[in-house]
Design a protein that fits this description.
76 residues, mainly alpha, two-stranded antiparallel ribbon
């Protein structure tokens, strides 16, 4: 079960709080400490191609979009 499936089930269980608590206890995805899924883009929430240098926490696509505004220049 992926993270999106987990959220869908929670929406269905909103009217049944006791069942929702039991579901969360047994099926909640664990928080990641290492690996690809531990870092998300702060702008679009993608997992892959993450740039964390200088405290940016952006994926490469978002970095390309806002690099000029941040102050990065392209040399070449």
């Amino acid at each position: 079960m992926g993270a999106s499936d987990w959220r869908k089930v929670l929406k269905q269980l909103q009217n049944k709080p006791s069942k929702m608590q039991k579901f969360i206890k047994h099926n909640k995805p664990k928080e990641r400490k290492i690996g690809v899924a531990s870092k998300k883009c702060s702008r679009c929430s993608r997992f892959g191609a993450h740039i964390s240098s200088y405290g940016l926490n952006l994926c490469r696509q978002c970095f390309r979009d806002i690099a000029k505004q941040i102050g990065f220049n392209k040399y070449s």
